[in-house]
Amino acid sequence: RVGINTPTPLGKLEVAGGDLLVSQTVNCLTQTFGGFAPAYTNLLAALVSPSFEGGSTTGWFTEPGQSIASVTDQSLHGSYSLKATYQVDTRLAYTAQMTLAVSKTYVFYFYVWIPSAWDGGQIQIGDFASFDAATKTYYQADMSLRDQWQRVTMVLTTGPLDPTGYLAVTTASAPSPGKFIYIDNVQVTQGSAVFPFSCLTSQVPKGFS
Predict the structure, then answer these.
(1) What strands, in cross-sheet order, belong to the sheet with 123-126?
(2) How far apart are CA 104 and CA 101, in angstroms?
(3) Side-chain-facing half-sphere of 101: CA atoms under 13 Å
């Protein structure tokens, strides 16, 4: 419901290449929907704050003695990102436990901003104690890219047993205490395709007015 033809519309209608598109800003960014858009779900959107808008860190955790905070220092979409500060543990942040389906492929990713002052190891995506994974392929952060956003990705195929687990943001080696990174646009989707970030639980709405 985008409120089209009202005094304060929340979105717009347009025609592109014969397709009717609806654009609506929802929580963290502008979502565009069309009749032939692929349907996909950010599986984290109903479980955690995937874009940290409004100062939310819902569903996110770190180890005792460290800190995570939703801040406006940097952001990829919206106004907020997660600032994860190292003190004692190379696991900088992790999500609440999620349950996937057995024997299915998923794409996990987040975007990271690595400050030039970061003196720790490679920023990595991973899972821990989780997912009975049959296969995993990692695409880790390029540590030469500083003071800019980049995507860090993992493709995981679950095994036939326990499909529960966590998404974790880690560093390969410890930086100096007090060093930090920023995280934004965290997503988990089923299938092997890498979809644009969505903060919605479904990318294709059931209808609009």
Answers:
(1) 60-61, 91-95, 168-171, 123-126
(2) 6
(3) 8
Residue 125 near residue 172, CB atoms below 8 Å:
no
| Predicted confidence (pLDDT) per residue in 82-121, tens digit | 999 999 999 999 999 999 999 999 999 999 999 999 999 9
Instruction: List Cα–Cα distances, 54 to 50, 81, 84, in angstroms.
Output: 12, 10, 17
Q: Look up tokens 């770190």; give the residue.
A: 62
Planar angle of CA 138, 142, 146, nearest 5 degrees: 145
Q: What is the pTM of this model?
A: 0.79
* Range 143-172 average pLDDT: 92
Tell me the C-alpha distance between 76 and 148, whole Å. 9
Per-residue H/E/C for the chain: CCCCCCCCCCEEEEEECCEEEEEEEECCEEEEEECCCCCCCCCCCCCCCCCCHHHCCCCEECCCCCEEEEECCCCCCCCCEEEEECCCCCEEEEECCEECCCCCEEEEEEEEECCCCCCCCCEEEECCCCCCEEEEEEECCCCCCCCCEEEEEEEEEECCCCCEECCEEEECCCCCCCCEEEEEEEEEEECCCCCCCCCCCCCCCCCCC
Q: Hey, what are 51's tokens? A: 């874009």
CA angle 129, 187, 46 (to 5 degrees): 85
